[in-house]
Recover the amino acids of this structure.
């Protein structure tokens, strides 16, 4: 609950004894303590107000596909450049890439109340074609998707990240 500054100050002042001009020196410490108590009360009231529900429905900052795609592109290049395809290691590599993308999206974009779903598929590259598709049900005003592709001599990787805002 938000505490009124005026009522808080009045309550604190009522605790300090009346000071006559001759006793000012004796009560400097009381005045100092009073001021610190007042400042602490104001800080706790401000913190309580910040913790209260805001009932904000729409996000203050929306997900931008370009920024998310740049992060995905950077992670794919960092993790997969120089990698060779090994069937036994592919699932672990896909999990590592997916976790890194999710962690970087969370930390670098700083979008509160967004949840991330990251999908990574790695396959052997032998000149064959591959098609992938995905389907989601979401709010086009707040939710978005970004994807990128990495290809080298022995493997290909398709990564997609879905940012979903929780109301």
């Amino acid at each position: 609950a938000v505490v009124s500054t005026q009522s808080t100050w009045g309550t604190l002042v009522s605790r300090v004894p009346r000071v006559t001009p001759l006793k000012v020196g004796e009560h400097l410490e009381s005045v100092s303590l009073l001021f610190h108590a007042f400042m602490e009360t104001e800080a706790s009231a401000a913190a309580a107000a910040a913790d209260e529900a805001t009932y904000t429905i729409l996000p203050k900052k929306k997900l931008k596909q370009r920024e998310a795609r740049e992060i995905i592109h950077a992670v794919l290049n960092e993790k997969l450049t120089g990698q060779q395809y090994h069937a036994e290691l592919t699932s672990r590599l896909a999990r590592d890439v997916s976790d890194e993308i999710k962690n970087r999206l969370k930390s670098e974009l700083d979008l509160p109340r967004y949840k991330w779903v990251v999908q990574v598929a790695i396959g052997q590259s032998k000149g064959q074609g591959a098609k992938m598709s995905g389907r989601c049900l979401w709010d086009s005003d707040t939710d978005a998707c970004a994807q990128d592709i990495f290809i080298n001599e022995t493997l290909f990787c398709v990564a997609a990240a879905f940012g979903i805002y929780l109301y």
The radius of gyration is 28 Å. The chain is about 40% helix and 20% strand. The longest strand covers residues 114-124. Residues 1-5 have pLDDT under 50 and may be disordered.
